[in-house]
Amino acid sequence: MDTITQIIVSAISSGTPLLLAVLGGILIERSGIMQLGAEGLMLMGAVTSCLVFIHTGSLVLAILCVLAVSGVLGILHGFLCVTLHANQVVCGLAMTIFGAGLSAYLGKPVSGQPLVGAVPKLDMPWLEPVPVIGKIFAHMDLFTWLSFVLVLAMHLFIHRTSWGLHLRAVGDNPATADVMGIPVIAIRYGCIVVGSMLIGIGGADLLLVYTPTWNEGMTSGRGWIAVALIIFARWNPIRALVCAYFFGVLDSLGFRVQLIGSHIPSYFLKMIPYVVTILVLMFLGWRNKNKPSGAPEALGVPYIREQRF
């Protein structure tokens, strides 16, 4: 039981940065804008939080700077995709390349410096006597609890509010939404900026909590896994939580296998979460090939007012 509890705790820690990135991607893609720049945004969030925390020692200031940097990159992405109607795939790939290159340059002076204890844990001693649950939830960090709140809030926002209805309308049929008086451009810009901030916070959580040392390319493809898990979760925040922690379990299992002295090369063990994610996506694609995918119908299609089709 202790081993299972440790795997669950490790899976939650590993899956939380991914969950935040997936939530940000869901919000952006629900508005009809394709998000392929999650890898670059996570790297920029990670390096920004590292630089600010090392130089100021303030977690609040580090988070504010991550939000500011991610928001500016979101505005840039929105300007290209929404205002200039640029190809969204190309813009997403450009964001990834830009974020990877700039973060590698900015992070050179602080590479390898530890940031242990940057994020406080919310200790709840009264939970400790509860079997299993107490050991899992009694000492979770602030970002993990924030992710739980965000999952619930985003689910209620998308499916239980009029603004969520407007968001789904913009993602499915922006022309009709525009005719009905819904501010399509404003909603898309707002979703891109807020979603980019969430992805940036995911990168900050990866550095400040899970791997408290900056290294070039430290996301190791988690941004691309987040893009895949958006599809895996069918653009649903509740499913996103399950998918992110599923990846976290696979990641922690590979680490546990190394600890017991397995002779399997570590490179193959690190491949397990990525290979399983690809196989699951292939299986779901084959199983649901004649069913609706759940994706917004206007995803990736630029909206030009009064354009005839």
Polypeptide structure, described:
- This protein has 309 residues and is mostly helical.
- It is built from 12 helices and 2 strands; from the N terminus they run ααααβαβααααααα.
- A two-stranded antiparallel ribbon has the order 1-2.
- Helix 1 packs antiparallel against helix 9.
- The protein is globular and about 60 Å long.
**How far apart lie the N and C ends?**
60 Å
The number of strands is 2
Please state the overall shape, judged from the principal axes of the Cα atoms.
Answer: globular
Q: What fraction, in percent, of the residue positions are helical?
A: over 70%
Radius of gyration: 20 Å
Structural class: mainly alpha
Order of helices and strands: HHHHEHEHHHHHHH
Treating each run of at least 4 consecutive H or I residues as one helix, how many helices?
Answer: 12
- Strand portion, in percent? under 5%
Rounded mean pLDDT is: 88
Q: Let me know the largest β-sheet.
A: 2 strands, antiparallel
Question: How would you summarize this macromolecular structure in one to three sentences?
Answer:
With 309 residues, the chain is mainly alpha-helical. It is built from twelve helices and two strands, in the order H-H-H-H-E-H-E-H-H-H-H-H-H-H. Helix 2 packs antiparallel against helix 3 and helix 10 crosses helix 11.
